Structure formats: C-alpha cells, structure tokens
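HUMAN: Quick job: go over this next protein and say how the chain folds.
***
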Amino acid sequence: MKKPIKTIFATAIAFAFSFVLFSCSTEKNADTLRMNMVSEPDSFFPWKSAAAETAAVTDNIFEGLLKFDEKGSLYPALAENWSISEDFLTYTFNLRKGVKFHNGAEFTSEDCLYTYKNLAGLDGLSPQSDKMLIVKSVSAPDKYTFIVELKSPYSAFLMLASDSPILLKDYTENEKFPIGTGPYKFVSYSLHEKITLQKNDEYYDKERAGKIKNIEIYIMTDENASISALQSGQLDIVQMVTGINAKALEGKYNIISHPQNMVQILGLNNSYPPLSDINVRKAITCAIDKQEIINGVFDGFATPLYSNFSPILAEFYNDKLSKLFVHDIQKAKDYMARSNYKNGFDLAITVPANYQPHVDTAQLIANQLKSLGINCTIVPVEWTTWLEKVYTKFDYQSTVIGFAGKIDPAEVLRRYCSNYKRNFTNFKNAEYDEIFNKAENEIELKKRAQYFKDCQEILTKECAAVFICDPGRNIVTTKNIAGYTPYPVSMYDFSKIYFVK
C-alpha cells in the first residue's frame, strides 16, 4: 500500500523531531530503558483515563487489591489474602502492612474506603465507575481490614478489584503528578516529548520489584521515526511496529509478536439513519473483505474476528460465528436492495490520525464499499478530538478503532449495553441487555461463559459493528533486552524487563 504524500511529509517531520529529541542525550545510560509510545497520555488520573496505552504505563504506578499475571490469573497485591461469604455478597480483604505510597504515606484501609466510596458513589459522592455500582457498602473495622458488600452476587468482582487502583486518600494531584504504590513511580511528563518513571526502591514485593532504575517513554507518533531512533541506539524498545517493518528488522533485533486481545472494528453509529437500517449494516458487513485488511494493513499479523471478542480468551469465545456473514459482494448488494437506501448514501469515517493502521483500514473499507454506492469520506482527527467527539459525545457516523482487550469478558461486552454511558455505537437491544445482566449475576463459570457467547451471537447477527480482526502486537527490542512479557491486555510490565550482556 502506497502512503500518501502527506504521510511521507509527516514522517520526515517526525524524524526531524526525533533527531532534536535525542540530540542532547546521545550517550546510552545502562540504568535507563527507553521506548516509544504512539499517543499522548489522555490522563494520569485513573478515574478519568480512557486510553489503553495510557493505562499500559500507569499500571506500573498504581495497583489494586489484586493484580493479574500474563495468563490472566489473579494474585495478591495490596491485599495479601481475602475471603468470600457463602452468599457471595461480602468480600473481606486483609491488607498488607508496611506498604507505602510513593510520597512516603502509609497505605491503610482508609485509602481503600476513599477509593471505593468514590468509585461506587457511596455517601453521596458521584460514582466514578459504572462497574462499581454493584457495591452496596464498604467498611474498615481496623487499619488493615477492608470489607466490601455487594448488592447481588457478581462472579467477576475480584477481577474488578484487580482493575481498580487504590488511590491515596484525599490526594487531588494525580492528574499532574500521579502517586501510587506500584513498582515504578512517576517523575515527570513533557508534552509531546516523554514520560519519565523511576524504580520504587521501597516496593514491598522484592520478587516483583523493578530491575531497571529509570524508564523513559517517548511520545513518537510516527513508526519510521521510532525505528530510526532504535537503529541509531536511542531507543531500546519500539512497540506498535507493522509486520513489514518487523520482518525487515529480523536478525539484528529481537522480534516479539503476539495477539493483543484487541478488537479492531468499523464502529457504526446505529442511531445514524442509514446505519439504523439492519439491512444496510448486513450489506456493509458482507462487503468488507477482512483478509484484504489483514494482509494489506497488518502484513498477515492478525486474526479475523466475527464478534467483539478475541479467541485469546478461549473459555468465553464463541467459535460458531464465522459463517454467519462471509465476504460476499452479491449478498451485500442483495441486502442493500432490501434496505431503504438502495442507491447508497454518504458515510463519514472518523479515524484517529495517530493510529496509521486504522487510517489505512479506513482507506481500504472506503474502496470496498464503493460497490454498494456508499461514498465514504475519511475524517482524520487528533486522538483527543476522537475521544471527545466519538467516545464521549457520539458525534460521528462511523469510525475505525481498536477496542482494548480486558481480562474480564464483561468489560469487553458491556460496551454494547443500552445503559452503558460509553456505548458510542448506540446499539440498543433488550435481549442483549437481559442476557448480559444474567451473565453479570451468574456465579457458575460455565453458565456465565455461555451467556457471554450468546451475547456475542446477538452482536454478530445484529451487525452492531463490523468486527474486523485482532491485530498482532509486534515489539522490536535491542539484543540486550530480556524479560519483555506479553499480556492479554495492553500493559508494559517494566518490572520484568532487564538488560543482558
């Protein structure tokens, strides 16, 4: 695929920027790991952040009562152990003693009370998390005991606890200077330049403590500029590398490629009149050639998908959906003929300009939909603009975006619930809502998994969006880097990375 002139020009600008960025620090520091990041952090405050790449960084700063490993298994973090009542409504957490926040403050049950009351909207506070509305009450009988009572049984509550970082009570500067208990602490952030972290020497878990003293994460939106920085010795790790560039770097560098539990979709605003017609949505679904996108955009490093779920979470994945809507232009035309838009219509595809794979995917989709008389206009916007217009205000017609993966399947599929405030596809389906709620309240794992599979089937049959692929995450590192660990969610686990000779 040829890049347009404006992309080539942007690459040149980005390369020049990277030269300026690194020119004053050309000596390699053995105590410092340097890597790239393709977008600006949207917020360091966990209650405000929505970007997966930001969370991939802040997960090193903040921690929940539990954490999960690279297989998605839970292990104790700020809670050293816990117990659950027979009715599955009361969770008692025994907290670690001697844990300190990065500013030296002691971690106690007061911090847990502060965090969960805000998250759940207790004591008249505004809820910061829809997921935490399941919480009925919280209490702390002593300094190192924290109790949560739920309104109804929720089998994924421990997973939710692992994804809910504990914040320092009454600290209000996390937006600018985040303070947590994690293995790395925040040092600084320079807009358009870098985030700097430093090893937390007081971290309570010596086995999981960081091995490298300093972490520098450079915001570099252009892949070619990042690769040039790697080749010149100014970066140790480059992530979000395309397949073609990864192949070109084999031999001289370490190449790590793994599924990332991300669902790339053509998001359809179901409230936009043409897209509210299910026959139009079916036509678009049949007209899009996923394999052309996988080959042309991801160089084959991707897995085709059929619902908003990746097979990486095999236990919950519905593997019976691949034949429902196959690529078939004639079928697509037949569906259009049954719709109220037989002669086609205009469609704007809003894409975050800093994610080139999404831009390239939108270009291919625009070409593929021409046969249906759908005239697509690609609207590239800055990431912050996308978050505001699409994710928050639902002010768009269609979009190409990647839904970040989650460990809990409920967090993946909640995005299509009618009452979810971030349901930007505006998908409304009473049966879907009912089955999802049953899954939320089901304790038995097999039944819960089946409910989630049923939800996936509804999304596919109703063509809530066009589910394209799970792009492979390609990481390139210098030969002296070891320990980079893939997770089923976006996470840079800096505590596991180390230098080798």
